[in-house]
């Protein structure tokens, strides 16, 4: 999962990045709002974590511009601003959550998980039932068969997340290339190898293929 972090405080930026990397997230960090805004259109991110007062354009301006362009990528603001008017402005612009500095790493972890769960799944979904006794745990982002976790590589986990979060819709090769490999060129044969490896660890029926459309994991709830 790709996360963009905008934070101009050196210590905060590094500590957040290092902590989230230990949780398995891919982090691109920026100190300047204008640079971060440009990056949003150069790469697919699943979540934005934005400080408000930064050089260049502010976190507020970034979200205002994104929402005006009908871009609903989830956003968490991190800020030392505590005035209710500032908090209200963030929500009115369209952020998904707010964290006040200082905060603990675990608080950030839980808030990220909650935003991801509410945006890509639903708040009531802890276990998403799939075919053949498989289920996906939205808290741990792990795939299970019955109660046994399926041992997947990081890229395989990212593919599973992407397919499940698209809720019974086919995901194209181009979208896989863009979201999983950050638009780095991967030919279709190489992507098929990743899909085959997942099927070998799970079942041939878990991932459905349709020529011209891509891949899909059917959800039963």
TrEMBL record:
GO cellular component, one term: cytosol
DNA-binding region residue numbers: 125-219
Pfam families associated with the record: Response_reg (PF00072), Trans_reg_C (PF00486)
GO MF term list: phosphorelay response regulator activity; transcription cis-regulatory region binding
GO biological process: regulation of DNA-templated transcription
Gene3D superfamilies: 3.40.50.2300, Winged helix-like DNA-binding domain superfamily/Winged helix DNA-binding domain
InterPro entries in the cross-refs: CheY-like_superfamily, OmpR/PhoB-type_DNA-bd, Sig_transdc_resp-reg_receiver, WalR-like, WH-like_DNA-bd_sf
Domain OmpR/PhoB-type: 125-219
Domain Response regulatory: start-end pairs: 2-116
Keywords in alphabetical order: DNA-binding, Phosphoprotein, Transcription, Transcription regulation, Two-component regulatory system
4-aspartylphosphate: modified positions: 51
Top-level taxonomic group: Bacteria
Protein name per UniProt: DNA-binding response regulator
Species: Halarcobacter ebronensis
Lineage: Bacteria, Pseudomonadati, Campylobacterota, Epsilonproteobacteria, Campylobacterales
């Amino acid at each position: 999962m790709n996360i963009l972090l905008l934070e101009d405080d050196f210590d905060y930026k590094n500590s957040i990045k290092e902590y989230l990397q230990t949780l398995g997230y891919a982090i691109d960090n920026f100190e300047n709002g204008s640079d971060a805004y440009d990056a949003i259109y150069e790469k697919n991110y699943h979540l934005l974590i934005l400080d408000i007062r930064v050089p260049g354009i502010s976190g507020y301006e970034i979200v205002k511009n994104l929402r005006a362009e009908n871009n609903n990528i989830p956003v968490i603001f991190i800020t030392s601003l505590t005035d209710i008017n500032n908090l209200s402005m963030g929500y009115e612009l369209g952020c998904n959550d707010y964290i006040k500095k200082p905060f603990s790493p675990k608080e950030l972890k839980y808030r990220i998980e909650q935003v991801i769960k509410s945006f890509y799944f639903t708040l009531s979904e802890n276990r998403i039932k799939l075919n053949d006794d498989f289920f996906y745990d939205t808290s741990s982002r792990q795939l299970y068969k019955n109660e046994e976790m399926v041992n997947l590589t990081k890229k395989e986990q990212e593919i599973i997340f992407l397919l499940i979060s698209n809720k019974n819709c086919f995901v194209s090769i181009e979208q896989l290339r863009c979201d999983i490999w950050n638009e780095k060129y991967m030919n279709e044969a190489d992507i098929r190898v990743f899909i085959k490896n997942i099927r070998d660890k799970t079942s041939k029926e878990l991932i459905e293929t349709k020529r011209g459309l891509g891949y899909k994991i059917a959800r039963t709830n």
